[in-house]
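[09:14] KT: can someone run the structure on this one? pasting the chain below
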Amino acid sequence: MILLKHPWLLLLLTCVPLVWWAWGNRRWRAAIRFSGVSRLAAANPRASRMTMVLPVLRCLAVALVVLSIARPQKADEQTRIKTEGVAIQLVVDRSGSMAQEDFKTEDGNSVSRFEAVKEVVRGFVRGDGRELQGRADDLVGLIVFARFADTECPMTLDHEQVVRALDKVELPRTRDEDGTAIGDALLLAVERLRNIERKMQKKDDFKIKSRVVILLTDGEQNAGKYTPVKAAEAAAALGLKVYTIGAAPDFQEREVGGFFRQSQTIKVPVSIDETTLTKVAEMTGGKFFRAKDKASLREIYGEIDRLERSAIDETRFYLYDELAYNWATWGPWQTGAGREIGPIRTPPPLLVALGLLVLEVVLANTRLRRIP
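[09:31] RB: done, structure tokens below
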């Protein structure tokens, strides 16, 4: 973008016609009077016409000087974005019970709890184009647990890496792997968030606004070394907020019967330790949610998404380059045929004005010299 610091000084361009008039006013120049000049004019008529170059050079020089004192500037717009993001540690249950296909979708079909959770968490991280906006400006990490807790993806701003890690998570293949170690998983999340601010000190454009754990499970603790309450105490001491989600329907349908009696479908209550999960959330300033189907699970992550938002400060400023006495680079440009032209480097107006004045003086004292 090109602009003038003092555009009102362009009014001085009205003096350019005065320069032309002053040069052409014969009364201001010394002259030798002759009774007739027909013989002198016939001597070199071409040189006589070329003398008009001198006032043109002077007028151009004056115009460029006026343009220079108006201070033409090239403004380069810069944007600096500072983000106060949220450090979010996702903790997802992958125990064998997550394979139960009792989560209803919006169209009435049934999917496994694990597949429903994967899809909703995926939308929470990068947005689903509906309720979930995505966490583009936040640090996100992924921990999964069954009998043992594992870090599948460290805290990162590369959310595609988080999604890829989530897609690769599988349910336990053996009984030795299966279980629900809620306390161990939560404590591992606390450890991952404990020093995250120190690790992000080198990034001047990113500051951590808050640290959050979103823990999802479909059951109650039956494995692990630490209890959820003990892990919540550590989270509360560090100022971490924990949101807990119980992801299972109220009842699970099962077929009973055999060879001697007719089979029938009965509803079996699903056991989730809501008391402990609620206590963990309350101890840390978070909230407990119960998801009974895929739609309610999406609403829960949508509510957490609205509760924990980043703060973005965008600052725009301009870098000005003085064109009056600095060389300028223009381009490159694309032609209609797709060819690239430029970049072109042009001299400053003051330098051009000086060159025109020097050229005028040289011509006036050599090729276009007047006598007298």
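[09:33] KT: thanks! DSSP finds twelve helices and 16 strands in the chain.
[09:34] RB: yep, looked fine to me
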